[in-house]
Amino acid sequence: MTISVTRKDTQPTPFPSETDIVSNDINIKNELSIRHRELLEEVRNLLKNYSSKPLDMVDALQKLCIHHHYEEEIGLILKSLYTKMLNNDDYKHDKSLYEVSLSFRILRQEGYYVSADVFANFKQKDGKFDQEITQDIKGLIALYEASHLSMEGEQILKEASDFSSGALKEMVPSLDQDQAMIVTNTLQHTYQRTSSTFMVKKFMKVYNGTPMWELAQLELTKVQSLHRTEVDQISRWWKGLGLAQELKLARNQPLHWYLWPMASLTDLRFSEQRVELTKPIAFIFLIDDIFDVYGTLDQLVILTQAVNRWESNCLEQLPYHLRICIQALFDVTNEISDKIYKKHGFNPIEFLKQSWINLCDAFLVEAKWFTEGYMPTAEDYLNNGMISTGVHVVIVHMFFLLGGGPNIKSASVVNENQGITSCLAKILRLWDDLGSAKDVDQDGNDGSYVTYYMKENAGCSSQKAHEHVMEMISNTWKQLNAECLYSSHFSPTFTKACLNLARMIPMMYDYDENHSLPFIEEYINSMF
Fold first, then answer.
1. In this structure, is residue 13 part of a structural domain?
2. Which of 17, 245, 274, 308 sits at 20 to 30 Å (Cα–Cα) from 4?
């Protein structure tokens, strides 16, 4: 006798066929697409009719990472605002601390120079900031955010940062949970120095229930799906190379390599560029590991000579596992150059080759220092260490992948490893050296700016050295802010991509006491 759990008056529910599943999936996507278009227009109408405080709307769109849909409207708003600020002195006096701070930050972020003197109106006769504004939480948050757009010599913004951060820290214990969370997030992750995609889910909570929130949710779903597809492409490419099997002690982290392009090239249109940019990043880590844990000094000299000549014949003296790695580097670099030429009509192979030559030369310098027991000065270490970060390799590849090649002057500037590239490299090197943990599979034979600085300054504690390095990072950010504001060599797309790279650096190297990277783990969970 067969026991059935199906009632006599019903029929068992059949499993859906593959056709039904695909059809249902298509219907859902179509419905989401229709709703997406509706929301785009709904938010566009809100932006057009948000005449009283349009910058609040612009700020929300940027924080929710949906501003790219409204570039034309936002451009008109900022141009109008900037004209008012230039031509009407009373405009600055009639605005609140929040309004002035928000205007200053967004305009500078978008390439408009606004004098830091706009904050002089909030100072007392003794030159200190007015104590009355310590009760203005919204204004203090905006002031603190604005202060991170500072450039060298702008003392008033340094004072604004110290004043606002001090006031905000003091008021945290007396705030409710939501307010305390907003203040803490601001102090820890300012908008200028943090990846916007890392913060998007936190900002969604602020705008919950609005059309902008719903649009941001749909956008995030699209972004997550695309990122998963791209990671799959990269993983298949990496597996197909077969290098992980030959170099088992080297890092095998395609997802982490992909995080850099994912965070820097945030526009969905740049899918191909994100995938291609991950490839040189993979080789930066791979070659770094070869210099650290695989090659003897004699082998590393031969390897570096082969890269300098860019000739496969020079590889014959190397062991198989090193030979196939450098051959793969040659092949992948040539493939990327061909793709750029077909898409943009400019072959950047000489620029790409030079970036790899510079990197290997810098790695070899460090290898010789370690082998010979030589201790460089902190300055010499930093100058070489900025090149060995691989930032120049990434920036050069990104520049040409974005189509910058036909502009020979800009190509020459990016190839000189100065300006924006130099700032990024310095920030990364210093953050990396501050890291309190090493990759578990690495010997950690690289030097450290902190170590060399402490040895050059007798009696300097690790805390003092840490504070010194953080001050160096802050000063370098000021230089980077100026480079991004005044640079006429590069497109806004490229400049913002460079800024986004800088914003990722703290998360990539900010280890906790457990030798892990909590912000990166949080970022991966939110984006995948």
1. no
2. 17
Q: 129 - beta bridge partners?
A: 123
The H or E element spanning position 435 is: none
pLDDT for residue 7: 33
Per-residue confidence at 3, pLDDT binned at 50, 70, 90? very low
- C-beta of residue 257 within 8 angstroms of C-beta of residue 278: yes
Distance CA 268, CA 245 (A): 33
CB-based contacts of 384: which residues, under 8 Å, 6+ apart? 362, 365, 366, 376
Residue 21 clears pLDDT 70, i.e. is over it:
no
Crossing angle of the two packed helices 391-401 and 408-415, in degrees rounded to 10: 170
Contact 155, 114 (CB under 8 A): no
CB under 8 Å to 295, separation ≥6 — which residues?
303, 322, 367
pLDDT score of 17 more than 70: no
Angle in degrees, 0-180, between the axes of helices 492-509 and 420-434, rounded to the nearest 10: 10
* Counts for the chain of helices (H) and strands (E), in that order: 24, 0
Token reading at 168: 């905000």
Kindly state the DSSP code that residue 406 receives in the 8-state scheme.
Answer: T
Q: Which of 183, 212, 241 is the last residue of a domain?
A: 212
Mean pLDDT of 381-399: 97
Q: Do both 222 and 197 map to the same domain?
A: no
Sign of CA dihedral 349, 354, 359, 363: positive
Question: Does one domain contain both 161 and 135?
Answer: yes
Provide the domain limits for residue 268.
Answer: 213-527
135-150 as b/e: b if 16+ CB within 10 A: ebbebbbbbbbbbbbb
Contacts of 148 (CB under 8 A, 6+ apart): 161, 190, 191, 192, 193, 477
Domain count, the chain: 2
d(CA 319, CA 246): 11
Domain boundary among 187, 212, 237: 212
What is the pTM for the complete model shown? 0.90
State the greatest distance between any 2 C-alpha atoms of the chain, in Å, as a whole number: 97
The reply to whether 200 and 305 lie within a common domain is: no
Residue 182: both structure tokens together:
């907003």
How far from the centroid of its chain's Cα atoms is residue 108's Cα? 18
pLDDT bucket at 20, cuts 50 / 70 / 90: very low
Closest by CA position to 227, among listed 273, 268, 279, 283: 268
Per-residue pLDDT, 26? 53
Say which residue the tokens 């504690």 belong to: 461
**Shortest CA distance to 284 belongs to which of 358, 195, 367, 366?**
358
